[in-house]
């Protein structure tokens, strides 16, 4: 039992198995999904025990252990870390918070001893970002609830033994209630059919597709919200977003290690790449991403304990998720630039990382939307305390007050309530980075290497200054849809 093993020993065992499983680059290159034979040596080490309460044989849901597990996996494979993240944050943690005890007692042991896997289905073909409008419905019937609908892009499609399904209650007249309800499905219930498997661009080990749902779920398998269904959904989503840095941590460290090693050994013009100033700028950026992510892990470990309701943590959760996933993508792009053509091979980690990290900016809240929500939340807080000057507000706001002095003159302006959406997104990008900077300052105060902290703050401040350029630019062009009329360069020759 892994619960009796010290964490250092437990994580070393998991790391070793994941490393050896993913040592063959073919796993990430073309073949889709993961066979039970492939997964079994890893799952034998009970990696998911970190997400399971000790009462049911798990390691007790210590947030630091959960993030370390995700980190150890993502150093070897981002896709496998996401597989663990899906199981942990989108299935096991919500089950431990909201499912009946009898259901927990039934479900958890299967993840420890039978290699069971779980996932979450929210998204539908017609409802993604506006998931609250979902059409999957349920009615009470003899023996439980009858769910019907179509879901797509659920990670581990066709492979998961358990699904957390989301649906809206249907009235006699056929209207759907506003609230979202959650149900735990398992294979023995039947009624989830994969209509199509998708050829996903990256993350090859994870199967995705479209599922037709027509199933009856026993009554006790419905989550009991302690408050409202929306609050439960927010708790689930915010907790998951707060844990993204776990998946990012090992991945960013790996890209930093790869970048440094490559630039030390690759000679161009008779000297190592690392001696070029522009290369140093890129490597420093990679390292700043590592430092920022470390700070986010420390923040989450403290804040997102399993007994804490995360439904009110929109601002830190949305900032962490959007900023760290932007860093994941920009780091991959930068490493690919440094590695050059060799990095463009499918079996090279640089090119693969570009496609594997890209959807992190899309799923669990598209970053464009999250940035807008960050700006809206800050403006709402400013209104509440009747403060119009952004810099002044940030200097007394608890998520930014220890870093606000970097921005006293830069952010000393007021913002209209009617600000255009594109500007709100720019502002959200700025605020997300300022909030992240404070996490870095706090990490420094706890003894993290000062040179890493200072380099990181310098580069993050540069990011904020660049974003301010876009925010304050008055241009607001819109697309010209009939652009082909007088839009032919050949016809414009003199
Ligand atoms: C690899 C991958 C894994 C996934 N895993 C899961 C999973 O496990 N479970 C699950 O349920 N779903 C999953 N999803 C689905 C994912 O959550 C949705 O793709 C996401 O919510 C966006 O929905 P959509 O794709 O329908 O895009 P849309 O809702 O059509 O949005 C597309 C884009 O339009 C823009 N946009 C949308 N609304 C606005 C707005 N109000 N203002 C400005 N711009 C806007 C944004 O740029 C947005 O990215 C996954 C998706 C991918 C790619």
Written description of the protein model:
- The protein has helices spanning 7-21, 36-43, 63-76, 78-98, 101-113, 229-242, 244-265, 277-303, 314-339, 349-357, 367-384, 390-396, 421-445, 450-472, and strands spanning 118-121, 137-141, 144-152, 162-169, 181-186, 192-197, 209-217, 267-268, 271-272.
- It is an alpha+beta fold.
- The strands form two sheets. Strands 1, 2, 3, 4, 5, 6 and 7 form a seven-stranded mixed β-sheet that branches.
- The protein starts with 6 loop residues before the first helix and ends in a 22-residue tail after the last helix.
- Flavin-adenine dinucleotide (FAD) is lined by residues 86, 119-123, 128-129, 153-155, 203, 359, 362-364, 366, 368-369.
How do you describe this structure in short?
The chain is of the alpha+beta class and 494 residues long. The protein has 14 helices and nine strands.
What topology does this entry show?
Blueprint: H1 7-21, H2 36-43, H3 63-76, H4 78-98, H5 101-113, E1 118-121, E2 137-141, E3 144-152, E4 162-169, E5 181-186, E6 192-197, E7 209-217, H6 229-242, H7 244-265, E8 267-268, E9 271-272, H8 277-303, H9 314-339, H10 349-357, H11 367-384, H12 390-396, H13 421-445, H14 450-472
Parallel strand pairs: 1-4, 2-4
Antiparallel strand pairs: 2-3, 3-7, 4-5, 6-7, 8-9
Helix pairs in contact: 1-2, 1-3, 3-4, 3-7, 4-6, 4-7, 6-9, 7-8, 7-9, 8-9, 8-13, 8-14, 9-10, 9-11, 9-13, 11-13, 13-14
The structure holds flavin-adenine dinucleotide.
């Amino acid at each position: 039992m892994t619960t009796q093993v010290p964490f250092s020993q437990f994580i070393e065992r998991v790391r070793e198995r994941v490393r050896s499983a993913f040592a063959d680059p073919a796993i990430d290159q073309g073949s889709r999904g993961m066979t039970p034979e492939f997964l079994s040596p890893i799952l034998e080490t009970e990696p998911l025990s970190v997400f399971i309460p000790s009462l049911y044989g798990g390691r007790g849901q210590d947030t630091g252990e959960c993030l370390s597990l995700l980190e150890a996996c993502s150093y070897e494979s981002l896709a496998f870390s996401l597989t663990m993240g899906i199981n942990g944050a989108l299935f096991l943690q919500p089950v431990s918070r909201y499912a009946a005890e009898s259901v927990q007692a039934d479900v958890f042991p299967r993840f420890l001893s039978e290699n069971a896997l779980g996932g979450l289905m929210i998204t539908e073909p017609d409802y993604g970002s506006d998931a609250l409008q979902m059409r999957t419905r349920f009615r009470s019937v003899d023996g439980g609830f009858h769910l019907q609908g179509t879901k797509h892009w659920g990670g581990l499609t066709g492979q998961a033994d358990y699904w957390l399904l989301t649906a809206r209650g249907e009235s006699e007249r056929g209207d759907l209630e506003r609230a979202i309800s959650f149900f735990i499905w398992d294979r023995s219930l039947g009624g989830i059919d994969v209509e199509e498997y998708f050829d996903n661009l990256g993350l090859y080990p994870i199967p995705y597709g479209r599922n037709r749902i027509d199933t009856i779920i026993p009554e006790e398998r419905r989550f009991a919200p302690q408050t409202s269904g929306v609050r439960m959904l927010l708790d689930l989503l915010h907790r998951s977003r707060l844990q993204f840095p776990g998946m990012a941590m090992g991945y960013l460290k790996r890209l930093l290690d790869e970048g440094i090693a490559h630039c030390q050994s690759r000679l161009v013009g008779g000297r190592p790449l690392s001696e070029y100033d522009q290369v140093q700028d890129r490597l420093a950026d990679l390292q700043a991403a590592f430092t920022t992510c470390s700070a986010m892990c420390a923040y989450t470990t403290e804040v997102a304990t399993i007994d804490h309701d995360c439904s009110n943590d929109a601002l830190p959760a949305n900032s962490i998720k959007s900023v760290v996933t932007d860093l994941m993508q920009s780091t991959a792009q930068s490493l690919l630039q440094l590695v050059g053509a060799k990095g463009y091979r499918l079996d090279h980690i640089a090119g693969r990382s570009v496609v594997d990290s890209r959807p992190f900016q899309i799923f669990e809240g598209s970053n464009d939307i999250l940035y807008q929500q960050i700006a809206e939340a800050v403006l709402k807080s400013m209104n509440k305390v009747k403060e119009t000057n952004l810099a002044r507000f940030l200097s007394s706001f608890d998520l930014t007050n220890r870093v606000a002095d970097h921005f006293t003159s830069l952010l000393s302006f007021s913002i209209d309530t009617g600000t255009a959406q594109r500007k709100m997104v720019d502002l959200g990008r700025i605020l997300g980075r300022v909030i992240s900077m404070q996490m870095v300052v706090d990490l420094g105060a706890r003894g993290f290497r000062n040179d890493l902290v200072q380099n990181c703050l310098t580069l993050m401040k540069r990011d904020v200054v660049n974003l301010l350029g876009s925010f304050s630019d008055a241009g607001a062009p819109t697309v010209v849809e009939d652009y082909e009329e007088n839009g032919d360069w050949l016809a414009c020759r003199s």
